Amino acid sequence: MIDGVVVKELKVFKDIPDIPEAKIQPGFLMEVLRADDKLMTKFGQTVFTVTYPGTIKAWHWHSKQDDLWFVATGKARVVLYDQRQESKTHGQTEIIMAGQDDYKLILIPAGVAHGYQVLSQEPVLLFYHTTELYDKNNLDEQRIPYNDPTINFDWAKV
Hints:
Blueprint: E1 6-9, E2 13-14, E3 28-29, E4 45-51, E5 56-61, E6 67-73, E7 75-82, E8 93-99, E9 104-108, E10 112-118, E11 124-130, E12 142-143
Antiparallel strand pairs: 1-9, 2-3, 4-11, 5-10, 5-12, 6-9, 6-11, 7-8, 7-10
């Protein structure tokens, strides 16, 4: 595991319909983030994005901001690369499968490059909580090409 990354497995609770005789498919609920998880040093904002099948969104990283990712629908391969020079896991890559039937909350520390690929036939709805507010006049987001030779990740391998 990359130093500072935390993966919280989320428990799904089956929903019981209020009208038991109704012939409907029951849903489910889950707790995603709790204050006592102590995963965020502070709260900046929550954002969500919709990404379509086959799309790769990589790489980007933040110098100050931690991200907390939750894939709510669809299935994604989340890939992390530790580019922090001072880290004991510098140069390591980590792959985390997340989304439908495999719900997780993923803490991505500042300095760790991250990206994801939609593997499902349906879109991915990704919620992410951040420790900083978005400021278009003072961006804390750096980008690296998805095929960067230093990271050397093969997105074609599934």
